[in-house]
Amino acid sequence: MSDSLLAAFCFVLTIALYYANKRIYDRSLHVILMPLLLTPAILIAIVLLADIPYQDYMADSHWLMWLLGPATIAFALPIYDNRAMVRKHWLSISAGVIAAVITSVVSSVMLARWLGLSVMLQKGLAVRSVTTPFAIEAAKSMGGPADLAAVFVVITGVLGMAIGETVLACLPMIRSRLAHGAIFGAAAHGAGTAKARQIGEVQGVVASLVMMTAGLISVLAAPLIGHLFF
Amino acid sequence: MSSSITSASYAPAAPASPWGQRVRQIANVIVQVLALSALWLLAAWMQTRWHVPMPASLLGLLLLTGLLFTGVVKTGWIRQGANWLLSEMLLFFVPAVLAVVNHPELLHSQGWRVCTVIGLSTVAVMVVTAFVVDVVYKFELKLARRRSNRHV
């Protein structure tokens, strides 16, 4: 197979696998079947087994990643739609976001150091709890590995989605829907927001607002984070 | 471009075929995604042109939020495209995950350590966020109650 044909094949395969996976997941909602987890896992297996060079895979598929830019801009719509909620709860949302970003960065870097991971990995892990486009920007401005940051973001999303409800069950004193939604947006970005939307509408809206604000703050704070920790 | 006005409501005798509607819906999504992509390119151009000290994605987000709040851009112009971009976002970062193949050490020796960091840190973020939001939310309620008492 020629290189350009191979690239086109990988592009089509990625899209086809994703949509097939999504259909299956919509029917069962099982964590293992999440499109965020299963589709990349199958693709990685195929790329490794068939010995497809990374450059050939990316030649066409990088256009999918390019769409993350317009997708970031599209967040303006839910912000505008939920302006009433922003006006009413801006204080608790911003307090939650600031606490979440600080906890995330400090705990990630400290744990990574304690386990002896390299500075590169520490930088990638520092911003892993915010949504991908923002995490990539934040990692870049710290001089961290943008590609690995994206991988860590995805792992975080899958884990956060899987354990969120268990964490809430361990905290019976936290009862407000605002707090329930916030933990998903703060800890597990887009994946968590999807989960929060399954739990309830208010939770879903709060989760998406928290996710977006956390992303913004992380990008703006990234130079400071880099300066303080590395 | 508003989806709430269907052709059927104007011509009840000849309702639009489901296929025609579907095609129009897809065309709307494509046009609106192209418009949002153009705005993103504009933001990227502005960012390099004037050395704005923030990433282009952030600049574009602030730009569009401003346009929506001032009413220059109507939500109906971008709703279908924006919803599609947001709901298919997972697809866009599937290729990003493939970067692991360039870092075989992650799949072998360091994988469990990275996952330990992510797991513990995620629990920490959840617990801290839950308590902070809950406390400030109760404070917000108290403030609101005091404000309404003053009016009485």
TrEMBL record, chain A:
Bilayer topology annotation: Multi-pass membrane protein
Presence of keyword Transmembrane: yes
Compartments, as annotated in UniProt: Membrane
Keyword terms: Hydrolase, Membrane, Transmembrane, Transmembrane helix
MF GO annotations: hydrolase activity
Membrane-spanning residues: 6-21, 28-50, 62-80, 92-115, 148-171, 205-229
Signal peptide interval: none
Superkingdom to which the source organism belongs: Bacteria
Glycoprotein in keyword set: no
InterPro entries: CidB/LrgB
Name the UniProt record assigns to this protein: Murein hydrolase effector protein LrgB
Lineage of origin: Bacteria, Pseudomonadati, Pseudomonadota, Betaproteobacteria, Neisseriales
Automatic annotation (TrEMBL), chain B:
Signal peptide region: none
Subcellular location, principal: membrane
Protein's UniProt keywords contain Nucleotide-binding: no
TM stretches of this protein: 26-46, 52-73, 85-104, 116-137
Locations listed in the record: Cell membrane
UniProt keyword terms in alphabetical order: Cell membrane, Hydrolase, Membrane, Transmembrane, Transmembrane helix
Domain of life: Bacteria
GO molecular function per UniProt: hydrolase activity
Membrane topology: Multi-pass membrane protein
InterPro entries per the UniProt record, alphabetical: LrgA/CidA
Keyword Transmembrane helix appears in the UniProt entry: yes
Annotated protein name in UniProt: Murein hydrolase exporter
Organism name: Silvimonas amylolytica
Upper taxonomic lineage: Bacteria, Pseudomonadati, Pseudomonadota, Betaproteobacteria, Neisseriales
